[in-house]
Every structure is written in C-alpha cells, then in structure tokens.
C-alpha cells in the first residue's frame, strides 16, 4: 500500500507537482483576467453587460463559455487518468490523486459541463424558436446561472484548497460518510451539487412555464419545433427528478456534519436508501442529458436535408414516452445488490422498453434524410456521426439491461465504454452539432469549416480508438476505478490503445477551440440572419437578434413557418411593420442574482469546512437579497416605440 | 467527401468486426466473461450472445440505411435521386419500426426473465456447500463452515458442486466478482446475501472487488482455485492440521485498513461471520436476521452462537477506523 504522499499546509494542499501546477495556473489566469479588465477599463462593461444581465441570449453565452471551460477541466482529468492507465503499475498518479480525479471528472462532466451546455442551448434557442421576447422569469433565469457558476467555482477550488471529493461521482454512503471519508473533500461535492441543483430546478420551472405560456399566437403545441418539445420533456424530468437529489445530498450532508444516521447502518440507517434516491434522480438525469440532443438532431436533420421532419407526431410521442419510462428504470444501476428476481425482471424489462421509442426516433431521422437533399455542413456531420455511435451505445445499453448479463458487466469497463458512448456519442455530439448550428445566430458569424473538420475527425477517430477497446477490457474482467492494474492479465495492449485514443480526442478539442479563436477574426459574417436556409422562427431574425428579439410578435399558422413562407416567397410577412410596433415590456438588469450566487457560495464554503459562522453569514445574505427583491417596486421597464423603430431601421428591417 | 464517407464506413465496420471477432473466435481465457468455467457464467454468456444477435437485427439495417441515404441523397448538382420535401408520413413504415423493436424487446425480455429466475438458486438435485465471504478494507476473508477453516485473499472450492457464497462486508460495500465462474454480487455491511457459483473444471480463477472502496481498492484481488472434491477435502484436513488458528485479535486486525497477502487459518472464532453481520447493522434488518437463522441450521454447526442473541455486547470489540457513537 503506497503511503499517502499529500500533505496539507493549512488548507492548501502541498507536496505534489500537479497541484503546484494547478495553483500556478489558477493564479496566473486570475492575474491575467484582472490585468486585462483593468487595462482596457472593462470592469464597468463586465458588470453592466454580463454580470447583471437578465437577457436569455447573454445568459446562454455565459453558460456556453462555462461549459467549454469545464469540458477542458474535466477533459484534463480524463487525460491524466488515461496517462496513469496507459501501462500497468505506473506511479504517475497515486491512488488518492486518481480517486479524486475520477470523481471530479464524472461530477464536472455531467453537472458542470453537460448541464450548462444544455442550459446554454435552451437559453439561446427556445425563446427565439417559440416567438417570445425572453423566458417567463428572466430574473430567476439569472439566479439559476449564478448558482451554477458559483457551484462550479466551489468544486473547482477543491483541488487546491482542502482536497477534492474522492468517493466517485455517485458518492455512495457509507464510503462517502464521515467515518470512511473525513475532511472537506466530500463536502465540496455535496454543497456544489446542492447549489447547482437548486439552479437547475429553477431552470426547469422557467422553461416549462416559458414554453407552455409564451408561445407566439397560433403556435399550438403540435406546431412547435421539436427542440422546444424536447425541452418540455427535459423540464418535466428536471422538475420531478432534481428534488430527489437535493434531498438525498442534504441527508448525507447532515450525516456528515451533524452526526445523523440516515445512511449509517450500524446505527439503524440504511445506505440502500441513498442508492435508491440517488438513482431516482440519476436515471432521469441521463435522459435530461440526452433528450435536448434528440431535439437538436431533429432540427438539424430536417434543415440540412431540406425536408419536413419524418413522423412529427411519433417524435413528440416518443419524447414523452422516454421521459415517462425513465422514472421506472432506476434499479438497473444496482441489479447486483441483492434485489429478488421479480424486482430485477421488472427493471430489466422497463429498461429495455426505453430502446423502443429511441429506435423509432433513429428511423425517423433516417427517413427525414430519405428523399431529401443532404448538405454536409458541420451540424449535419456531427448528426451523421451521432447515428451509428449512439445506436451502438444503445445496443450495449439494452445488453446491460438484461439483468443476469449485467452481473458480468456491472462495475466493469464494459459499463464505462457504454455510458461514454451514449454520453459522448449522444449528448456531446448533440451539443457540438447545436453549437455549430446556432453559433451564427448568437454571435453573428459562422465557425470556420476547415478547422472544424479537423476537430470533427480527430474527435471521432479518437473516440472509437479510446472507447471500443474498453468494452473488450470489461469482458476481460477489468474493473472501473482502479488506479493501476497488474501486467499478466492481458489488459496492457488495449489500455495503451485506449490512451492513444484519449489523446487524439484531446487534439480534437484543441482544434475545436482554435476554430473558435480563428473564426472570431476570420469567420464568415452572417449578414442574412439565415445562414443555413432554416425552417424555424429564430432564422427570421437578424444575427445576433436585438435584445427584445421580436419587434412584433409573429403569428404562426404551421410547423416550420419560416421555411414554408420562404417557399411561397412570403418571408416579408415576418418582418415588422412600423405601424405594428408598440412599446416593449422588458425586465431591468439586476446585480442581485450575481450576489445571490455569491451568498450561496459563502454558505457552501461554510458547510464545506464546517465553519458555521460563515454559513450563517451566507444565509443572511441570501435572506437579505430575497427581501430586497420582494420590495423592488419596478423591476421592469418599457422600450419606447422610437427606440425599437430606430434599432430595426439600423438592422435594415424597416 | 466520398473518401471521408468511406473512411467512416470502414471505421464502423472495423469496430463491429473487432467486437464480432472477440465474440466468436475461440476466446482465450483472457476474455474471462466470454470463456466461462461454470454453469452460471455459461448461462450469462448465452444471454449475452442472444442480446448481441438480437441487437444486430437493428444495428445493421440502421448503419446500412444511413450509408445508403447519405450517399444517395447528398446535395450535389446533377443528383438525380428523387427530392420530396414533404414526404414526412407513412403509417406502414411507422408500424414497422415501432413493431420490430417491440418484438425484439419481447423476445429478449422473456429470455432475461427466464435466466433471472433460473439463476436465483442452484438446481435442486445438487447439495451446495457454503463459503462465507467478508470483504474488508482491502482484503477478503473466506470462512468454510464445513471444515471450520478460513483463508484470506484466496479460496478453494470443489469442482462440480454448487457453492453458496454468503457475502457481507466489514467495510464500505464491495462487490464479489469471479468473472470466469459468473457475475458479481455486492458485499454489504449488515447484510448477508448469497451468490451461487459453480466450477465445471479444475483451475485457478481471477477474482476482484468490483465496487470502489477507497485507496486500496485496486489491490483487492483474490484467486479462487477449483479442485476435485477429494483434493478439496484433503486440503481442508491439511489446513486444519498445519495452519494457525484465527484468533479474535487476528480478526480485529483484519478490519484495520491495509493491503496484505494470502493467509490461512485452521479455525476461526465460532459465529464470527454472523456477529459481523449483526454488529454492522444486521440487528436492524429483518432480512439479515432471517438469513442468519436460515444459514446457521443449514450449515450444520448446531445451535446459534451466543454472540448472535446479544449483538450489542460485541460492539465493544470494535476498533480501528470505525466511529463510535
């Protein structure tokens, strides 16, 4: 057993070059940000335009930037793990380090990369698609973002201050209890998920209300774009799943900091309760991550095949069916924990049933392309890459659902390969497809195709090289979460290949970021507002859209309104007429959501280190901000007609 | 563009080919799950193969249609393929692709339920032997009620006889997995769960903790040796005579987190397995109490050990890393 080689100097962790590297890069990045902001006198701009904004488009941009940063952070974790596993018996990372890194890799990828990426797309696209001027509760939207942002800060500082969580992203009790896992590390996990979880519930409520109540006149639910439909399903899932997580994390926190025994079996608690509640959130969470990607693919396949989506009603029905079934499958995460045969049979069949509506969606996408005209632009390339990748991931998913077979896959690299194939091949491919698709709408320029193709091929080839060998490793008996393995079991070659794949994916990420940087200067400007010959309302607006979105709210009569009007040469019907313009009711910017997030951060720090005075101060801040908000008499204002006319004229639309 | 599509297609085929090769070619013992050495692993493998075949019924057409459609309907000047921008509804097609997956799930579901029930207990004509397994941080203790001997980090079992592994943990839960004999089951503190496995041929089988238990998790390897009933009994007799006894002190030493090598003991404190289950929370679990009652008469060692009726007295024995409340 290698002894612990990490030590603590006060709260700062010392004794490891990786951590010194992280310390140095955090310090350098902070200094650089402060320097640039001060030198170019941008502090006021940052506060006025971004930190206080309630505009869904800007919030979407901030989510997007955060998601890409977190993809870098958790991707670095992945590269470190693959380096450690490249060969048997390496000592690049010790067990404490490896345990922390696989825990933060999973936690950050799911909760601080995939979730904000999805929230970015929801914010960017939903109000524009349904003909709304903002979300239903713009102030709550900003609160959700800042809760996420400060929660992400909290989990990211854990690496250098106090130590990262190390009980896995699932953090099962009793391993994650204070007996076996003392110290602040696990508290970082609990508090950051708790805080971002509250934000997520807010987002779920917000977008459900927005889509149900704020669609443009005439847009009945069955004339709504499929991406917005996927967000309805996602929001419902969030609403009924996230509270389970909030509760279970709170109970574990109480166990840890207050010595309660919800999950300590030696005192009559029950750790199975943790596992059940975790997955009652955790399984719907998987669909929260994939349904928006399904929505994205529906938009892209239809647009880039120049064809109406095939089987619209089937698509809507299957979305809702998947969300319903997803509440009845959670026990498939622990078939091997001694449930009896009838319980396992129920959850096995329920899990297989998910494959039916999912398969239907895949055939509907294929037949949307059938008799279309397929344009191989970046969003479509990612979509085409998604289909075989996700289908194979789905296939191994059904294999895992066969309970007795799962006794052999559970906790092995077969499982690791499966969920990476659906989460990368499904969610991440979907998010990237969407990024290329809506990028011009948000920023007013297109991402360069040449560099994007490098990123695409590197990432795809790297993916298969990295993850297909892991299925085989699982069948060879390799368990997940081992920081090293012996030679002689035949695992060496495949692990080495897998590591090469991980680095090719890393290259893909570098190309992706380079493409963004390159395109900021050299990317083609989007002057029409409709670079893809789009079908839905957002493409009838200029890029980027004015902050009130629609000068005049459009009337909708059919699915793909914008496309159909263009076909009939009637696109002018969606241009505003000066006589129709009325004063526009908008929410005022506010600094309170930012401060609200900051106050929760203080609460988080208080609980992480069990400094209760600090936690109380944080709670007082939260309470004060809630009070201040409720006494605010005029959180809104009207944009006068003149100003709207002026803006629209400048955009060449009047 | 065409070249890239071909690359993509080749990659897909290469991926599928690799999986198929591994699945079908003789499968050396390295591919442990695919080379079962007993009936449980064999039945699980049968289900795995059935699920792969059924899934290929969907996968192959999806990939074939994708390649065909993307090639035929690409947006290129002079492409003569039909273009029908409003072709978006076909009841016949929809019925086909709702129907086929439903059929596949029905078949696979039936097979899954059948195997699930079949594997709950060994065939009734065979008399199983019992091995009690306790996972510690980070080691495995095997206790053999028949011969009253114990081993650490390795186990001996007879060939051709079902073995009921009764699993518990005196540490955070782990999972007991011997891939060539069959799938895993969790070891959980305060609970005793059974997993039956059987070796069809003599051999040494790799086993490992499958559920993460902290720093020493990567070192929770053990080996299970299967040998003929005669040799198994000879081994027990040999251990009874040659090895030291496992004392209470040794037992407590096991629960201190550490990584150690193999150990062998000629006897162990009576009731130590049951006491561990009850002390670690089994006293609060109706199922564990029933299990203990069922287990004990069945293993033939007579009356219940005294410690079982007064589990609270044993908590004072606890040392090491567990918190006392």
Notable features of this structure?
heterodimer, A: 654 residues, mainly alpha, Cytochrome C Oxidase, Chain A, 2 domains, two-stranded antiparallel sheet, 66% helix, disordered N terminus, B: 325 residues, alpha+beta, Immunoglobulin-like, 6-stranded mixed beta sheet, 5-stranded mixed beta sheet, 9 helices, 11 strands, disordered C terminus
* Proportion of strand residues of chain A: under 5%
Distance from first to last alpha carbon of chain B:
68 Å
Examine the secondary-structure arrangement and name the CATH architecture of the largest domain in chain B: Sandwich
Q: Name the poorly predicted regions of chain B.
A: 298-325
Compute the number of structural domains of chain A: 2
The largest sheet of chain A has its strands arranged as 1-2
Mean pLDDT of chain A: 93
Quaternary assembly = heterodimer
Distance between the termini of chain A: 74 Å
Work out the largest interface and the residue count of each chain.
Answer: A-B, 105 and 107 residues
Helix amount of chain B, in percent?
Answer: 40-55%
Q: Helical residue percent of chain A?
A: 55-70%
From the alpha carbons, calculate the radius of gyration of chain A and give it in angstroms.
Answer: 25 Å
Q: What string, H for helix and E for strand, traces the elements of chain B in order? A: HHHEEEEEEEEEEHHEHHHH
- What structural category arises from helix and sheet content of chain A? mainly alpha
CATH topology of the largest domain in chain B: Immunoglobulin-like
Whole-number mean pLDDT of chain B = 84
Lateral strand order in the biggest sheet of chain B? 8-5-1-2-3-11
What is the secondary structure topology, with strand pairs?
The complex is a heterodimer of chains A (654) and B (325).
Chain A lengths: L6 E3 L2 E3 L2 H23 L3 H9 L4 H30 L9 H35 L8 H20 L27 H29 L12 H33 L12 H34 L7 H14 L15 H29 L8 H24 L1 H7 L3 H31 L5 H27 L16 H31 L38 H7 L16 E4 L4 H17 L3 H19 L5 E4 L1 H10 L4
Antiparallel strand pairs in A: 1-2, 3-4
Helix pairs in contact in A: 3-4, 3-5, 3-15, 4-6, 4-8, 4-13, 5-6, 5-17, 6-7, 6-17, 7-8, 7-9, 8-10, 8-13, 9-10, 10-11, 11-13, 11-14, 13-14, 14-15, 17-18
Chain B lengths: L1 H23 L14 H34 L18 H28 L10 E8 L2 E6 L4 E4 L1 E5 L4 E7 L4 E5 L3 E6 L5 E5 L5 E7 L11 E7 L1 H14 L5 H7 L8 E3 L6 H8 L6 H13 L7 H4 L1 H4 L11
Parallel strand pairs in B: 1-5, 4-10
Antiparallel strand pairs in B: 1-2, 2-3, 3-11, 5-8, 6-7, 6-9, 9-10
Helix pairs in contact in B: 2-3
